[in-house]
Amino acid sequence: MVIKLQPIFFDKVWGGHKLKKMYHYDCSDHCGEAWGISAHEHGSSVVMNGLYKGLTLRELYANHRELFGNHPSDEFPVLIKVIDANDDLSIQVHPHDLYAKIHEQSLGKTECWIILDTDENTEIVIGHKAEDKEEIRQAIDLNYLELLMNRFPIQKGDQFNIYAGTIHAICKGTVLLEIQQSSDVTYRLYDYNRLDNGKPRELHVEKALDVIKVPDSELAKDKPTSLFDYHIKENHNNTEHAADVYGDFLFITEGNGTIKDTPVTKGDFLFIPANLHYEMQGTFEYFIASIK
Ligand code: ZN
Predict the structure, then answer these.
(1) CA 77 – ligand 1 centroid, Å
(2) In this structure, what CATH number is given to the domain that contains residue 279?
């Protein structure tokens, strides 16, 4: 049985209409995030088909752990989402596991991005040029943090690993897929002095300074393979597969076809239970992840 998951949509001050346009989601024109494979308490995706239709992924993980190969974690460990940045996201950082556990009763957040679509000349912000935390604090106080950031041009297909402690920002004109630890803790350092419903969004400068990595000028090349594994693949004609010991988690990036006779199309999020054998038919490109 292939389980299709209905994403949970979140409107954002920086969101846009591209998720609706690219994936035909029933979301607003300000949608910033679609959490497609999420069992997080702030938003869990929902089973759309079959025996478990209507259950949230959070309920499925809690009550049918056998589908997930009896994974030992109490909380489902990852969150997979697509993001439409119609405007710049705040310059932000996420805590590592120990800090998050003590201060937020949460997992930390390391995240990985796969660029799905960009406008022309789009960039991304990862890491900084500062030599110590004082330099970052001063840049925040004097309102020039943006000048300290490292910016990189991006294009469709690029992949980036953002470890906890690395400052980053997704910039206007980017649609990306994010696989991350199941955490919703973000420390904002700078939000372009913009207003959301008439007031500035909260910043978290002290906590951010606690967790920021210094120095941090190099892009992380290696994937965080201790947390999860992921690939972009293509299917042509008929292919045979066996799901991972904890199941496979998929997002269809282009095209359409069937997986174990279930029709799938661009924009679908899917869970294939542990060790299941399945056949893919059709021509499509997909993201596939397994958990550790
Ligand atoms: Zn982030």
Answers:
(1) 16
(2) 2.60.120.10
